[in-house]
Write a structure and sequence with these properties.
Layout lengths: L3 E5 L2 H20 L2 E5 L6 H9 L9 E5 L1 E3 L9 H8 L20 H18 L9 E4 L24 E6 L4 E6 L1 H4 L4 E7 L4 H8 L16 E7 L1
Parallel strand pairs: 1-9, 2-3, 2-5, 5-8, 8-9
Antiparallel strand pairs: 4-7, 6-7
Bound molecules: 6-phosphogluconic acid (6PG).
């Protein structure tokens, strides 16, 4: 299935429309909406708008995971979880047990292993070989990284585990990240990108000319969307 490329003049609204449509379909078909949140700055206004416009969403049927996390405590300004709490999680009635937080405050390898096990537990309940997200939101950095799959880092080569710790030399920091097998198991992956600085990379990726980590996101049996804000 070729990627869907949407050039949007209403980036936040269009992103929320994609999220809500995916939620309605998943809940109608399977009784649950399993969605992964991306980190960074871009998604913050999207999550806020989602929270404000999803009054009728049955939040007890929503399960939230995180595509990656910085290895910091959950109250650290760097935490992707903290950003999601402030913009979405603290403002909607989602049961705490439905939010799968990556424990950035413990040893990275331990945090990755426990998260991998938690996803595997849910996958086995669904009879899935690995956890299958209904919608997996991703961002992309100016170096073409996505989640915490940075150029030249070890996690790019992982083909078995779903979640690993990954040392990022350019940041001199550890991250916990989804791997390609988990990303590509999703029913729908949506990149949310805004700003001119990323356009050259997106153009290369869409032309099949780049060699960036984001290019490795190719859902095996799912849809890939690039939502590009102006
Ligand atoms: C993170 C993200 C990362 C992010 C990109 C884009 O933890 O930083 O998961 O992959 O999506 O770096 O970040 P911006 O949206 O801030 O440009």
């Amino acid at each position: 299935m070729p990627p869907e490329v949407i050039h949007s003049a209403s980036f936040v609204e269009d992103a929320v429309s994609i999220i809500l449509a995916s939620a309605r379909q998943a809940i109608a078909e399977r009784g649950i909406f399993r969605v992964s949140l991306s980190g960074g700055r871009t998604p913050a206004p999207i999550y806020s708008r989602w929270a404000a416009s999803a009054g009728d969403l049955p939040w007890d049927r929503v399960q939230i995971t995180f595509g990656d996390e910085r290895c910091v405590p959950p109250d650290d300004e760097q935490s992707n979880y903290l950003m999601a709490r402030r913009t979405l999680l603290d403002t909607v009635p989602i049961p705490e047990g439905n939010v799968f937080r990556i424990r950035g405050e413990i040893a990275p390898a331990d945090a990755a292993a426990e998260y991998d096990a938690r996803l595997a537990q849910v996958a086995s309940r669904f009879g899935e070989p690995r956890y299958q997200h209904d919608l997996l939101l991703l961002g992309m950095g100016p170096d073409g990284h996505t989640a915490s799959l940075f150029p030249g880092t070890e996690a790019l080569a992982e083909q078995t585990r779903n979640v690993v710790s990954n040392f990022v030399p350019k940041l001199n920091a550890w991250r916990v990240t989804f791997t390609y097998p988990l990303l590509n198991a999703a029913r729908h992956v949506c990149f949310l990108l805004e700003g001119p600085d990323k356009k050259p990379i997106v153009d290369q990726i869409l032309a099949g000319q780049g060699n960036y980590p984001s290019e490795g996101v190719k859902p095996t049996d799912g849809q890939l969307t690039w939502l590009l804000g102006t």
